[in-house]
Amino acid sequence: MNSGTDRARRYLQTAAGVTVDGQIGPITLAAVQRVGATEIVQRISDRRNAFYRSLQTFPTFGKGWMRRLHEVTGQALGWAR
């Protein structure tokens, strides 16, 4: 994540389908376990993709952001399997 830990926590909670409060506790961790690591990684990647594309500076920096997102997602999926 290159957008900070707060956004990362919120993306994780959204991907896990729990209330987004920015606090990682037993409810979030149990939900992550239920959803599964591979699905969590894909959901967060999709969310990051949408976020990047929503930025006004995407035409300028988007190619690099998408390259980095693809690399990070591939690495995370490798760890998840």
Describe the fold and architecture.
The chain has 81 residues and is mainly α. It has one domain: Up-down Bundle (Chitosanase, subunit A, domain 1), CATH 1.20.141.10. The chain is built from 4 helices and no strands. Helix 3 packs antiparallel against helix 4. The chain starts with a helix and ends with a helix. The mean pLDDT is 96.
Please trace the helix and strand order, writing H or E for each element. Answer: HHHH
Residue stretches low in confidence (pLDDT < 50, at least 5 long) are: none
CATH topology value? Chitosanase, subunit A, domain 1
Largest sheet: none
Q: What would you report as the Rg, rounded to the nearest angstrom?
A: 13 Å
Based on Cα principal axes, name the global outline: globular
CATH class label: Mainly Alpha
Q: Helix proportion of residues, in percent?
A: over 70%
Relative strand content: under 5%
CATH superfamily: Chitosanase, subunit A, domain 1
Please render the helix and strand layout as text.
Layout: H1 5-16, H2 26-35, H3 37-54, H4 58-80
Helix pairs in contact: 1-2, 1-3, 3-4
Keywords:
81 residues, mainly alpha, Chitosanase, subunit A, domain 1
Compact summary:
The protein is mainly alpha-helical and 81 residues long. It contains 4 helices and no strands.
